[in-house]
Structures are given as C-alpha cells and as structure tokens.
Design a protein that fits this description.
By secondary structure, the chain is largely without helices or strands. The longest helix has 7 residues. It is elongated. It starts with 33 loop residues before the first helix and ends in an 18-residue tail after the last helix. The model has no long low-confidence stretch (mean pLDDT 82).
Length: 58
Amino acid sequence: MKMKNYNLGDDFDRFPVAMAYVPWQQLCNVYEDLDEALQNGTLFPELNKPFTGRRCCK
C-alpha cells in the first residue's frame, strides 16, 4: 500500500493562520482522595468532563 504524501510544499501560504480562544480557568477545588483523582485523570474536579458518547450539537 502506497502512503499518501501530505507535504504542503509551496501551497502552504494559501492556508489561513489559526486563532485559538482559551478562557481563563479558575481551579479552586482539588480532589482529597488521590485515587479518585487518578481515576478521573485530573486533580481538579472542575476539569472532570466524562465522555458521554453523544454529540454536543443537534
């Protein structure tokens, strides 16, 4: 199987520059139980956003 060449070469200038918006996060709480933090993948409960398997838009 031949791999596709994704080299942009001279066409790189035709792509727009991206802009990101990252809101300030105020992390006030931490998990007291470090095992719970490890299971959730974060020390901060505010960042615990479990995957529900659904789309956010209709």
